[in-house]
Amino acid sequence: MVRSERERLTGTVEVDEALIGGVERGGVRGRGTAKEVVAIAVEVLDLKGFGRLRMRHIADASGANLVGFVCDIIATGSEVHTDGWAGYNDLEKFGYAHRKTVLSSSPDPAHVAMPGVHRVPSLLKRRILGTHQGSVTPDHLQGYLEEFTFRFNRRTSKNRGLVFRRLLEQAVVTEPEVTHGYEL
What is the pTM of this model? Predict the structure, then answer.
């Protein structure tokens, strides 16, 4: 569902990471948990609302993974809006305007200070619970993220037939994925 040559996000882009996984009671909270880490980037439109979305399942919330994600999917020169996590500190070295909002010292709650990257994981988790009954394994998580991204980025399309056509076109030009020695 993802075109390899798709354009990078531009303008003001909110970036954050979210934790995806099952219900965990009495365990570690936050970045130290055993849940899967997903990096999220959402274009923020000037007037109101959100533009395109990109998500990637990453191994951890280290600077190398987060800055690599940003460099892969956001055009140089864009303004990248992040929380206070130190993993984003090197963004300016790569040509990005970095706006940092330390959420713990911000007068606004997280969903107000950075609405895009807090609304998207909420919608994603709702979809996983509703459609997949909460059963998403780490091996297939990236596929579910790509499906969600495809649908999100076409949410305002007036022509459903064109969306289906784009999906068929992509299926025809994409090589089969090989996993564990078998073609899917």
Answer: 0.79
